[in-house]
Amino acid sequence: MSLIKESDVIDSVADALQFIACYHPKDFIQAMSHAYEREQSASARDAIAQILMNSRMCAENNRPICQDTGIVNVFVKVGMNVQWQATMSLEDMVNEGVRRAYLHPDNVLRASVVSDPLGSRQNTKDNTPAVIHTELVPGDSVEVLIAAKGGGSENKAKFTILNPSDSLVDWVLDTVPKMGAGWCPPGMLGIGVGGTAEKAMLMAKESLMHPIDIQDLIERGPKTATEKLRVELYEKVNNLGIGAQGLGGLTTVLDVKINDYPTHAASLPVAMIPNCAATRHIHFTLDGTGPAEFEPPSLNDWPDITWQAAENTRHVNLDTVTQNDIEQWQPGETLLLSGHLLTGRDAAHKKIADLMAKGQPLPEGLDFNGRFIYYVGPVDPIDGEVVGPAGPTTATRMDKFTDMMLAETGLLGMIGKAERGQATIESIKQHRSIYLIAIGGAAYLVSKAIKSSRIIAFEELGMEAIREFYVENMPVTVAVDSQGQSVHESGPKEWRIKLAALTIE
């Protein structure tokens, strides 16, 4: 019989969340390295290189892999023989661990959780509460699976109830392309099959916390129906040609995980949840001997990759760039940006829209005319940093505001991640604007290009406030050009054709 102390739970949760914020699991590093070695698409290979470089830099400097440090998901299996030395509930212990992790003075993590989701949506400031699932099991220990799940991938969760005779494979292959690139591929797909609606979703989420092992499975050969389905989906999803960041390429998923459960004879519930390039999870056990300990991976686990722009990369001065300049940029082209740009995301755009609807002016000093906006909510800086990790957020959430911004503010261009909707692409074409992407999953690497930062407006929004950055050689890719041509359409299409030809051969 184990005696589990309250402090051991709190300390273990806090340490685990700090750990996974900065260190990728070794299996993820190996899988991404394998994807990098085999990738033939120049754009996708470049994106994977930035992700791996970012990962190593974060490990070396103990900084978050991604600016979106996630909403905390916890699966706790409590042995029925466990005794507790505690005054708090298990849920309160976990949340106290979350609070301490995200407010750690040496490495503050971005608080992204808001309360009153249908009303004020006020940030809780400490990323609590976590989403906690507790199960009583035989034994005298407490097992914890904990993950920090980013919004970009969480927002792409899908659920359906198929007929028992329907093809799960067909549903997956039809659904994945519609998810876009906001989940920052390459990553993992977690699939839950059976049970009921809520059971399928929980199985899909928990499956994402299993180690990446698809290459081992392929090498030894699948034996069960589930293993055969994993391999089939892994191969067929990658043959879609979506590729890293949706730019087109060989690797869209690093693994496919499947959990199943008995279900009603009349139904086949299926849930699918992706994990992004900021895969963050860990498993630990408490047995009464003290808090869990976490050993960082060796830096030798990372491949020796150094990203640098090609010699012919176009250098852009944001302070002098003109409409005529951006009309020369081509889809898929790499740019290095220097100069001043503004930041803003969901909440800031909503405030701007509300002011315009009331006929009120923008805050003093806020002028978008002829300028670029970067969709970002950075981590707070530490130790003299100008800004913490500052990778892009999913641009499609700003689609509803884009035509207004281009028509009413004189905004010249936008920077984010993932594709844009068709109506937004038409607006970009109409206004002869431009949309660029930075690499999702390379937040710390991107932050090194930011040389100064100051808040311009809406300071009360915290990480969503509008800032002005001064950047030097910030790497971006042209995603939608001034003629409305999208690399997120042309890239995957090109690689689907190439992969189909390879399959036929």
> What is the mean predicted local confidence, pLDDT?
95
Instruction: Enumerate the strands of the largest sheet in spatial order, edge to edge or round the barrel.
Output: 14-15-16-17-19
Question: Main beta sheet, described?
Answer: 5 strands, mixed, barrel
Rg, Å, rounded: 23 Å
Q: Extract low-pLDDT stretches.
A: none
Q: What shape does the CA trace take?
A: globular
Helix count, DSSP H or I runs of 4 or more residues: 15
**How widely separated are the two ends?**
61 Å
The number of distinct β-strands equals 19
How does the helix and strand content classify structurally? alpha/beta
Beta-strand residue fraction: 15-25%
Entry keywords:
single chain; globular; 19 strands; alpha/beta; 4-stranded mixed beta sheet; 505 residues; 5-stranded mixed beta barrel; 15 helices
